[in-house]
Amino acid sequence: MAKLTEKQRRFVDEYLIDLNATQAAIRAGYSVKTADKQGYQLLEKTRVAEAISEKMAERSRRTGVNQDRVVMELAKIAFVNAADVIDSDDATIKAGATADDTAAIQSVKVKVIPTKEGEGVEREIRLNDKLKALELLGKHLGMWNDKLDVNLNIPVVISGEDDLED
Question: Exposed, middle or buried, 85 (CB in 10 Å: 0-12/13-18/19+)?
């Protein structure tokens, strides 16, 4: 890792918690009054940026969490077919549902309700938000342009008094 001061090392560690430079600067011991500027300046320093990148890569290797894995999980949610997962007759998870299919399940609730005829069962299977997953995948692929282009090409004609007719 690059040669850093003790405070800079603490900033790097704190920054990795929530990726908030201002809060990381405060937690690392920089002045609350100037933490926003300090955090920004620290991120601009090559040695600090390199240390953050190294630690992030190390954490990714250690945890197995990386961009490919996140995109694959989003794809499971985005492209699941509810009919492949849920038996619509009794609201249960189908026996043939694959691990990719069941990865899209947000929650399963089973409620036993006493009735005059015996016990009734209420089931609810919720899938994760498909639209949100599609939106995040679209952003990842650069499909959505969140910026509005307000540049207009309008010809402007300026005429003098001599050009006006009575």
Answer: buried
